[in-house]
């Protein structure tokens, strides 16, 4: 019995000692948890501005000639002369190439000789027709005087009818031979291969040459390509999001690596009425004047099209945008309280540098660097400017309160 009491006393003492130890540990940890503070976050701030902002569409594409066609022969033959080279200017109806024409000259001479024979036959049949006509008249007179018989009259009329038919055949043969001569002359003219087009009187240029002199050509074999590059067509493809923003007549600025620092202008002239199902893009064509001929078909170009412009818009640097709990917004800095407050915003025009804040109305300073470490009401540090306006290491100029003044220049 005494042993049981002693054991119980020992257990009670051990429990009391353990409880005291637990209370001391809890008392030590509790002030530490309660007194723990999140350290202030050093941030960069920029003032909210009132300025003009543009919404620009940035696209890439290629240049194409306004028109292009292939010069090809209509007949077969050996290419005797090629009168132009790549890059040569070409006028309308200018002779580009000449085919060997001996065979076609022979065909013209043969057709002319056959026409002469047909015309001689026509004259002969005409003379015979006149003779039979006079004979018929003589027999009619004799028949009226009862000198010629009825059978003689019938014979004269039959001869006249037969000769009249022969005369018509001879006339048709003349017309046939005349047509054959014209056909031979046309084929002969096809040996002189010309570049011809209907629209515009301006000169064009030779883009490519596909054959050399001496080549045997079949009908419709490509000889050279002719390009109209006084005005080029810039082709871009617009995604569904921007399709409704593109309109006929919009102007764009065009740049190419071939002429660094130089810009060209263009105007939207055609918009495809459909988007390709595979890419969800629509073809847009811009006319690009090229009076000096600097731009060439096939060049890669970058194009900016102004979709919208708004004056006196409230804007913040695009780097100030962030998200919290799925809401897009910004952190406004309060330099007096040294706090940052998250403000959900509705955006308007967005470009590479600035973003328009449509709602709510804001002013003051906005956090542009360090907002990924902030929460609502976080304590912040805005580094002070150094001497002569130069910020200290890792700091920036502080913008004036209320959103006025010059925007900061960024981190040094």
What does this structure look like?
This protein has 412 residues and is of the alpha+beta class. It has 4 helices and 21 strands. The chain has helices at residues 2-35, 102-144, 150-189, 240-243, and strands at residues 41-42, 44-47, 49-71, 77-82, 89-90, 94-99, 192-195, 204-209, 216-217, 224-239, 251-256, 264-271, 281-289, 300-317, 322-324, 327-334, 339-344, 346-350, 354-359, 365-369, 378-381. Strands 1, 2, 15, 16, 17, 20 and 21 form a 7-stranded mixed β-sheet that branches. The protein has a 6-stranded antiparallel barrel with strand order 3-10-13-12-11-14. The protein is rod-shaped and about 185 Å long. Mean pLDDT is 84; it is low at 30-36 and 385-412.
Task: Describe the structure using short key phrases.
412 residues; seven-stranded mixed β-sheet; rod-shaped; disordered C terminus
The sequence of SSEs as H and E is HEEEEEEHHEEEEHEEEEEEEEEEE
State the helix count.
Answer: 4
Rg on CA atoms, Å? 48 Å
List low-confidence stretches. Answer: 30-36, 385-412
Instruction: Give the helix/strand class.
Output: alpha+beta
Percent strand: 35-45%
Portion of residues in helices?
25-40%
Described by the principal axes of the CA atoms, the overall outline is rod-shaped
């Amino acid at each position: 019995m005494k042993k049981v009491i002693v054991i119980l006393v020992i257990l009670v003492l051990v429990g009391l000692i353990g409880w005291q130890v637990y209370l001391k540990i809890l008392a030590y940890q509790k002030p530490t948890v309660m007194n723990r503070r999140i350290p202030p976050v050093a941030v960069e701030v920029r003032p909210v501005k009132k300025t003009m902002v543009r919404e620009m569409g940035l696209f890439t594409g290629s240049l194409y000639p306004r028109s292009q066609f292939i010069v090809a022969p209509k007949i077969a033959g050996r290419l005797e002369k090629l009168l132009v080279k790549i890059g040569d200017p070409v006028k309308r109806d200018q002779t580009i190439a000449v085919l060997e024409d001996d065979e076609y000259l022979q065909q013209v001479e043969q057709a002319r000789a056959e026409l002469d024979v047909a015309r001689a036959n026509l004259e002969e049949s005409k003379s015979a027709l006149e003779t039979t006509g006079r004979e018929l008249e003589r027999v009619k007179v004799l028949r009226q005087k009862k000198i010629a018989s009825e059978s003689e009259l019938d014979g004269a009329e039959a001869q006249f009818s037969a000769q009249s038919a022969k005369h018509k055949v001879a006339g048709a043969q003349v017309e046939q031979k005349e047509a054959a001569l014209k056909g031979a002359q046309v084929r002969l003219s096809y040996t002189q291969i010309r570049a011809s087009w209907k629209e515009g009187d301006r000169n064009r240029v030779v883009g490519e040459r596909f054959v050399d002199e001496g080549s045997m050509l079949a009908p419709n074999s490509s000889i050279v390509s002719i390009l109209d590059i006084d005005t080029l067509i810039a082709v871009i493809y617009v995604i569904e999001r921007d399709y409704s923003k593109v309109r006929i007549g919009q102007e764009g600025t065009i740049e190419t690596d071939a002429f660094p620092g130089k810009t060209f202008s263009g105007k939207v002239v055609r918009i495809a009425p459909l988007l390709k199902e595979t890419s969800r893009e629509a073809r847009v064509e811009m006319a690009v004047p090229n009076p000096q001929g600097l731009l060439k078909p096939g060049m890669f170009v970058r194009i900016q099209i102004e979709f919208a412009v708004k004056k006196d818009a409230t804007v913040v640097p695009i780097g100030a945008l962030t998200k919290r709990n799925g809401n897009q917004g910004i952190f406004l800095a309060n330099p007096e309280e040294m706090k940052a407050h998250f403000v959900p915003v509705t955006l308007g025009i967005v470009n590479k540098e600035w973003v328009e804040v449509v709602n709510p109305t804001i002013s003051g300073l906005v956090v542009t660097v360090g907002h990924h470490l902030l929460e609502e009401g976080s304590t912040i540090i805005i580094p002070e400017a150094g001497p002569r306006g130069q910020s200290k290491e890792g700091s920036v100029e502080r913008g004036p309160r209320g959103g006025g003044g010059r925007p900061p220049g960024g981190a040094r």
